[in-house]
Amino acid sequence: MTGVRSHWVCVTAGAILVLFGLIPKMSVVVASVPQFVLGGAGIVIFGMVMATGIKILAKVDPLLHSGILLATISAVALNAYFNGFKEAKKESGGEVTGQLGEGH
Fold it and tell me: pLDDT at residue 99 above 60?
C-alpha cells in the first residue's frame, strides 16, 4: 500500500504510540479530536484496506479458490442473520416476525 519495505517503520510507530499512551497529556489531546474526524479517518483507512483486498482478490482465479468466495458469502450471511434478527428483537420487544431486520 505505502511502498515501505522495512518492518522497522511499524516497530518505531508502535513504540511511539506506546510512549504516547504512557503520557497522560497525550490522552487529553487524542480525546479532544472530534468524533467526526475520527469517523472520516476510519472510513478512509478501511476504504484503503478494502481496495487493497479487492486488488489482491482480482488477481486470484475464482475457480481455483472457491473457498474464498464461500467464506465471504458465509460471513456476510451470518452477519446479516445475527445482526438483523438482533435489531428486530429490540424493536419488536422479543418477537421476531417478517423479513430480516423488520420487527412488528
Answer: no
